[in-house]
Amino acid sequence: DSGVTQTPKHLITATGQRVTLRCSPRSGDLSVYWYQQSLDQGLQFLIQYYNGEERAKGNILERFSAQQFPDLHSELNLSSLELGDSALYFCASSVATLGRHTNYGYTFGSGTRLTVV
Amino acid sequence: SQELEQSPQSLIVQEGKNLTINCTSSKTLYGLYWYKQKYGEGLIFLMMLQKGGEEKSHEKITAKLDEKKQQSSLHITASQPSHAGIYLCGADGAYGQNFVFGPGTRLSVLP
């Protein structure tokens, strides 16, 4: 157990639907990062939050949004889902501020596998 | 933006053999990280290199950073089936740039 908890582990939904992925960071970590991993695109950075505020944005679609709550857990909302959104979605956390990595790297959750049918 | 390339894309070795995976950056490296991912699972942090010439080891895995070449190598000695998985390098960009990952190297170790 890495200390980063992601739920659900698997999600199957239809095109056009909306889903919410949840992440609880490791205790003490203030930064949460969301990544999308698909076979053809590799691991793509989506967005980072630090202590409730958005800190960095990557290749996140407008149909996707995220937030970090006061208890530091984060949610990634995916709407108007398309077949191409099927992927593994990872959450990672770190103590780092300012979007920089730390000497200890990020701690990754085990991911949510989203299948859009 | 910074890009990382890894070679080889995939590797199949016999148990007990040594192997090397390379990671090359398109821009100056401010920190190079190696992760391992078992298929369909989360990434596990292996080690981080920050200074040119730095070398670190974790069990039978050794990584080196050549800052001038903007390159890092990951070497596994006497490979075991437990080493199988996807190895990804990752790097901090310049200040304010997003952290990026390489495409990964898929390693299979045959018993």
Explain briefly what this protein structure is:
The complex is a heterodimer of chains A (117) and B (111). By secondary structure, chain A is an all-beta fold.
Explain this structure.
The complex is a heterodimer of chains A (117) and B (111). Helices cover 0% and strands 51% of the residues of chain A. Chain A is mainly β and 117 residues long. In chain A, the strands form two sheets. In chain A, strands 2, 4, 5, 6, 9, 10 and 11 form a seven-stranded mixed sheet that branches. The termini of chain A are far apart. The model of chain A has no long low-confidence stretch (mean pLDDT 90). Chain B has 111 residues and is mainly β. Chain B is 0% helix and 54% strand. Chain B has strands spanning 4-7, 10-14, 19-25, 32-37, 43-49, 55-58, 61-66, 71-76, 85-91, 100-101, 105-110. In chain B, strands 2, 4, 5, 9, 10 and 11 form a six-stranded mixed sheet that branches. A five-stranded antiparallel sheet of chain B has the order 1-3-8-7-6, with no helix packed on it. In chain B, 38% of the residues are buried.
> Beta-strand percentage of chain B?
over 45%
Order of SSEs of chain B: EEEEEEEEEEE
Run of helices and strands of chain A: EEEEEEEEEEE
Shape of chain A: globular
Rg over alpha carbons of chain A? 13 Å
Spatial separation of the terminal alpha carbons of chain A: 30 Å
Enumerate the spans of chain A where pLDDT stays under 50 for 5 or more consecutive residues: none
What is the percent of helical residues of chain A? under 10%
Helix content of chain B: under 10%
SS content category of chain A: mainly beta
How is the main sheet of chain B built? Answer: 6 strands, mixed
What is the number of strand segments of chain B?
11
Oligomer: heterodimer
Largest sheet of chain A: 7 strands, mixed
